[in-house]
Give the backbone structure.
Amino acid sequence: MTRNAWRRFSSGTALTVMYALTGLALVPLGLVLWFAASKGLPAVLHPEFFFNSERPTGFPGGGVSNAIVGTGIMVGMASLAAIPVGVLSGIYLAEYGVSRWASWVRLASDVLVGAPSIALGLFAYAVIVVPQQHFSALSASLALAILMLPVVIRTTESAVVLIPRGLRESGLALGLPRWRVSLQLILPAAAPGVITGTLLAVARAAGETAPVLFTGFGNPIFSLDPTQAMASLPLVVFRDALTPYKDLQQVAWGAALVLVVMVLIINLGSRWVLRRQIRLAGQL
Amino acid sequence: MIQPMAHIGRPELRTMPGAAPAKFQVDSLSFFYGKTQALKDITFQIPEKRITAIIGPSGCGKTTLLRVFNRMYDLVPDARAKGSVVLDGEDILTTTKLLLLRQKVGMVFQRPSPFPMSIRDNVAFAPRLLGWKSTKISEIVQQSLERAALWDEVSDRLDAPATSLSGGQQQRLVIARCLAVSPDVILMDEPCSALDPVATLKIEDLMVQLAHDYTIVIVTHNMQQAARVSDFTAFMLMNTDHRYGELIEFAPTADLFNQPQDSRTEAYITGRFG
């Protein structure tokens, strides 16, 4: 073989292998989406799936409205707690974070990112559920908030660090106090990146089962009371999929599909926002 | 021999150096980044409502000196200044009214840095945050843009994003933004080095206009620019033994370029080094 032909052959082989492996990496994603869609669609296609709450096996017309609302409430409360704290901490780390204290905060949030989610659930169980003697959406929100916090902190930090120094100095040179420059000039400029991070944290919290397992616990009855047990989508999937009853398994697939689509929408939304951030940062 | 440059700039001001009162009185100013000394014993006076240029080769401490005038160095940990810099009777190195100082002493940077918002909001940003009356603010926006010679170009699109302006327009917008908080002094750190020649000329014209009402201090690499626009020039050089910046000579611009008193100044302006 001539040298040229050999080069073309080896380059072609390498490319083929890369394409094949990329394809292979996409197979699980495709399968998950396909299974969720094909098995879940029959359940989701009935409108009452979204309007009725769970029913025992043998009673037709069961839905997951209780779980959708429950997931919304628990993730919503967790976001209310985690996002302000996380965003402010992220700004602190990016703008003022040269001290030893800041490096401790960074280390702590990195450790927290890696903490097993079931351990966070156990923590909320020990701190709220055990003293109160009953499950509650509030305790689940605590576990989810702790789960979200480090993600929000670090994504906010990296978005704020991206803002050019000139912008910060221009603000300060106008005689504005440093905290106002951070909050009213730098934060809005970094907003798309910060929003991306918080959306990813929300998506992750919505899909987590372990932290809500023995905190929110689940509740077949439609409930808006955060001090009581509350249903959530991952729990419906977890419980109903393990039953031997076809109709409940069907509900589980439907709930899984709703969850996958929800998380997918949040993820795609955050990518769209991120693209705007990158375009904006290029202009600064 | 160097050609006389008296026909450039505002020669009538250069013939009377004593006529303008001092805006900044810099006395034995030394500056340190941690243990590294960056400036040594700088003493001179910056005249009011004149353009003072600071020239010198890279690394001589021009920008460091400029950033003393609005205490921008406060952002750098371990940076400290010794000596005194008196502005309107108050030593700015020890002043506690840092925010008022920075309102009084505006700064324009090398790269235009428009805020990511509309043209109007860029100018109105600081007045709004300072809590000025909103009826007054739209007046301030127009006035500042007019003074920065940008109003005619943007008056019909004040709500367009500032990033849609050209580089030269952005730099004039930054100047307008700086004028909006009614400063006395405008510091400019190589304001034209990122601009094309036409935009540069516009900024230079603007500087001469602004000098009727404001004290301007400009750091520039460009000696022709210093000769064109400035009334006074300070020449700085890095001390090769100790690696700190020193003020070699300060004089009316025409004098400094035509009859430099120091051989190092002459060497620099005739292009023998730097």
